[in-house]
Amino acid sequence: MEKQTELFKGELMEEKLRLYFLNNGYYVARGIKYVFEGNEITDIDLFLYGRVSSLSRERTNVDIKNKKSPKAFERILWAKGLQQLLGFDSCVVATTDRKEVVRKYGHRHDTTILDGSFLQKLSYNNIERISEEELLALFNSIKSYKEFKNQTWKTLYEKSKSRLLSELDFSGYNSTLIILYYFIKKCFDAQKKEIALRATYIILSHSFLILDYILKDIAFLEPDQRKSILSDGFKYGNLGQEGVDRTIEMAVKIASSKMSVSQIKKSLDTTEMDILKEYYSKVETIKGIFKWAISFEKKAFEKSLTKPNDLDIELKGSLALMLDFFKINRKDFFELYK
User: Fold this and answer.
1) For the chain, how long is the longest CA-to-CA vector?
2) pLDDT exceeds 90 at position 236
3) How many Cβ atoms are within 10 Å of 307's Cβ, its own excluded?
């Protein structure tokens, strides 16, 4: 890696808190843009995702203000409102303010307060991870000239992160696969393969987190039911097969298409998604997928990047499955980093 990027005061506090929550078992994403229909509304300092049990997940937005005048009451109002807009389970405000009244106000409105006394105890002697700023600098150095119309890799990464806020569903997963496929292909570019591997790891972690949220609702169904729901979701997104069928029928009537409804439906009904349906419907996969999301996030931020051949057997297997799905030869990919 190049010389470590110097962090500003606010950035350093965000990194400290990210490490704190990572060490407490959360999946943590930092600096996520909250976007609605292409309009950027605000940034979320930290997004926390926890696997509480087989049935439930916890999503939390964290607001961090490391300033002399933190305006703590205002931040509580802002964080609580954002929590409700996003449908999250909880919110946290980290503030340098130490007043007891701030803690009381937060408690009254179900907002966890991490005050100045707590923040002062946090250390940052991290030697294993690069910072968000360093990762963004790497991604910002490369553009996609063809597939994504001159967008930087940083932009693609930011868009993938944003899906974690409001697209933890089949449509979000399918959109993430498009970016994942792009970065896996870029691993074959000798000049970009190291950065492309980091990008592959982090987007793969996003895809696993989305799947974990989807799978929590179907984990206790019968195997055939799980497979059916996954098959429809992977093929047709959030609408499912019935919704897509209705949309096709309406579109054909409006557009007077030369293709029949049955022809269009048949073109969509492929077996390409079967490999995903079979793998992600397995009980052992459902149990491990949150752990894989955390592990690949960690790999993406490692200062000394782990090569695909050196991944543990579960991570290597999950990556290999995606290579199979994208019809990319496993041997060719793994030999890139020997």
Assistant:
1) 70
2) no
3) 12
